[in-house]
Amino acid sequence: MGVVYKAEDVKLNRFVALKFLPDNVARDPQALARFQREAKAASALNHANICTIHEIDEVNGQAFIVMEYLDGMTLKHRINGKPIETGVLLPLAIEIADALDAAHAKGIIHRDIKPANIFVTERGHAKILDFGLAKVKFTGAGSTGTTDTGEMTEGVSAEHLTSPGSTLGTVAYMSPEQVRGGELDTRTDLFSFGVVLYEMATGVLPFRGDSSGVIFDGILNRAPVVPVRLNPDLPAELEHVINRALEKGRELRYQHASDMRAELKRMRRDSDSGHTSVRSPNRHAPPRSATWTSLTPRKFVLPLTAMLAALVIAAILWFQKTEYFWRNPIADARFQTVTDFDGVAEDAAVSRDGQFVAFLSDREGQMDVWVTQVGSGQFHNLTHGTAASLVNPDVRTIGFSPDGSLVTFWVRKQDAATGADISIWAVPTLGGQLKPYLEGVAEFDWSQDGSQLVYHTPGPGDPLFVSDGSRRLNAQPIFTAPAGLHSHFPLWAPDRAFIYFVQGSLPDKLDIWRISPTGGTPERITSHNGRVTHPVLLDRRTLMYLASDPDGSGPWLYSVDVERRIPHKLSAGLERYTSLAASADGHRLAATLASPKRTLWHLQTADSRAEVSAPARIPLTTSSEFSPRLGSNFLLYVSATGTSESIWKLANGTQTELWSGPGAQIVGGPAISSNGRNIAFSVRQHGKKLLYVMQADGTNARIVADSLDLQGAPAWTPDGQSVTSAADDHGVPHLFRVPVDGRSPSLFVQEYSVDPVWAPDGRFVVYSGPEIGTTHSVKAVTPEAAAHPLPALTLTRGTRHLAFLRGGRALVLLRGDIQHKNLWLIDLETGAERQLTNLAPDFDIDDFDVSSDGREIVLERVQQRSDVELLDLPRL
């Protein structure tokens, strides 16, 4: 029905959406009439859950609608074949019912209610879209309906668009009266809404088939599977609402959207208060008015037969739930340590025949590509410092060509002449000259027979392509992740039926999905919503990968049967895996295990501030120190002990533990108020994220927010009355204001925003935007959330923390490649930049802070230690 563009309204300084008819139908009078009717119908409605129409206009003979711009996703993508939990489903359903009630009150029947026409905003609110098939005139709910006769556009009457006998709408969501081509009233929308509710509650459609005729027959004559059979967690009350909405006779359905809204609201109230009724065995039966006759037990079935059948069903369900026949794929594996270097050996890859292992290592000082033949004990440096910017822990960096003759590796800005920012290069496995392999490609995988290639480029959404041959012939785009999300680790299934990949928000809101090589809607395989990386397939069904736990610990080894989809943690100890690869037959795995060392260092700036001293280690008795923050006369930092993290303070040479909690992990880093008297910090503990504030001596710790999915580090506002923090909303972080006096948090910045830092005078706050490839931008807004001017700043991954100097006129930040960075000073008034430190290549910074007078800097240094390990799996 249209092509939609995002645009900026320069008069009102806002984003809007412009909807044009596609070129091939723009001159069709009937399509144009529907287009104009959509604008008129929707513009007559002023409702929070209906997309607002601002105006309709024309340019160069093309009509277009100016409408509200929305961030988020359609309900179709939100469902994505999986049930929506009741706590999310009910608020959305109430809003949809309220919007339908408002439309019906204005004499408008939508006639195409479906998940694709319902938008879910980033804050989780529903918006009904697309009134292109709306019927504007009727006599009211419960009437026999009338056809429209008013002129909608010159030469075409609405009667011709909505005349009896037509079946406008989307097949699977049509009401019985729509299927028959009969006259319609508001109750047709309520049936379609019932179909949507069924799909929200179960993840599937109630009426399915291989053709429109089969679906039509289901809508007219067949009852769908009882919803609770598809989702046992479905409340009885919601099942009843769905049953009644799907009554084939209009007189048995809800008569008004307000009736549905009232029942949904009552259900939500009871759910929130804990009074939702518990389902008894008899509640599985539908209400008397429903048509589930095909599922009703026969009256004269022998009791013994019924008992045996029940036992068989229970056993099947138990086996499915527990995966009784699941077997740990590495239970009998033979483990072999390949490297024993001082330093890093990471991102291992194994050739398809399992004979060679390649990896990255800094054994000779710089990071290089190394290779070894399994069992030889000999290691060969293939790059000798000639390949820059090799490391990116968020992608699969090393690989092999299908025949094993080349080792491939990911590089950034390897060849400025080609203009390729990210590319794949290669070097012969036995040594030789480096050469381009797949330019402009970030990650890739060959099918087992080497005939097809899947890869993604580093553009927004990491677009996935499938092509024939190394020259990327006949490349076809198959998927691009939604705005703000990433797609990594593409992987062919052995039978080429699917391509598996990791999708989500970096670094720790990811899961494994799969898609057909011809494209379509991706299918979710795991539901960790954590740091998920390096998937490999041992066979068609056995998937192994790395994933962190909800508390942030790990990553650990996991395995899942891609058909049953019950994840199994395979790691037995506290080992931390950082990469995983497999041979073509799935019987040899190469993994890397890391044990990083984190220490704090400090340096002084000279009076001229043109130079800084060499860094010196801060002697501390804790075993690991990170996330340093400087107060007026003390140092704050986080330390890890066992499975928990705690906040420590160093003042006058004395270390004091200020806060700790069992199983707690500090999110981002702590924040010190401008007067130095209070501390704010985010904690991940027992599956929840909590925002704490406490006094600088560790007393009076209290929770000020427990309902936000906190992301990154918090920041105090200069007046000390609230804390600014990012919180995730449907996969996208936004900045929120959290008052410390107990009032509710409020949204501050609507676009993607994380890791805020306030200017000392409170005039503006800077924050980081989404990562595009391996970089992100830095933006600023005023306390009123208006854009604040800032020099163009694009930083590399791992540089989100910023610090102000000179009363807010300058920023200190980290600059460099992903592995090695230095401190830089940016003058915000002139845009001038100056490098502050020139640290040794082996001095890697993960975090830092600067004192308010700019004379002292504290650094968090990370010294990596990791080795390559082989796992040989027995052949059954």
Description:
Among the domains are: 222 residues, Transferase(Phosphotransferase) domain 1 (Transferase(Phosphotransferase), domain 1), CATH 1.10.510; 184 residues, TolB, C-terminal domain (Neuraminidase, 6 Propeller); 95 residues. It contains 11 helices and 57 strands. A 4-stranded antiparallel sheet has the order 1-2-4-3, covered by helices on one side. It has a 4-stranded antiparallel sheet with strand order 10-57-32-31, with no helix packed on it. Helix content is 14%, strand content 38%. It is globular, with a radius of gyration of 30 Å.
Summarize the structure.
This protein is mainly β.
Write the layout of secondary structure elements.
Elements: E1 3-9, E2 14-20, H1 29-43, E3 53-59, E4 62-68, E5 72-74, H2 75-79, H3 86-105, E6 118-121, E7 126-128, E8 151-153, E9 156-157, H4 158-162, H5 176-179, H6 187-202, H7 212-221, H8 227-230, H9 236-245, H10 257-273, H11 303-322, E10 334-337, E11 345-350, E12 356-364, E13 366-373, E14 380-381, E15 398-400, E16 406-415, E17 420-428, E18 435-438, E19 443-446, E20 452-456, E21 464-468, E22 473-479, E23 486-492, E24 499-505, E25 509-515, E26 523-524, E27 532-537, E28 542-547, E29 556-561, E30 568-569, E31 576-582, E32 588-594, E33 597-604, E34 616-617, E35 625-630, E36 635-641, E37 644-651, E38 654-660, E39 665-672, E40 678-685, E41 688-695, E42 702-705, E43 709-716, E44 722-729, E45 732-739, E46 746-749, E47 754-758, E48 765-772, E49 775-781, E50 794-796, E51 803-805, E52 810-816, E53 821-827, E54 833-835, E55 844-850, E56 856-863, E57 866-872
Antiparallel strand pairs: 1-2, 2-4, 3-4, 5-6, 6-7, 8-9, 10-57, 11-12, 12-13, 13-14, 15-16, 16-17, 17-18, 19-20, 20-21, 21-22, 23-24, 24-25, 25-26, 27-28, 28-29, 29-30, 31-32, 32-57, 33-34, 33-56, 35-36, 36-37, 37-38, 39-40, 40-41, 41-42, 43-44, 44-45, 45-46, 47-48, 48-49, 49-50, 51-52, 52-53, ...
Helix pairs in contact: 3-6, 3-10, 6-9, 9-10
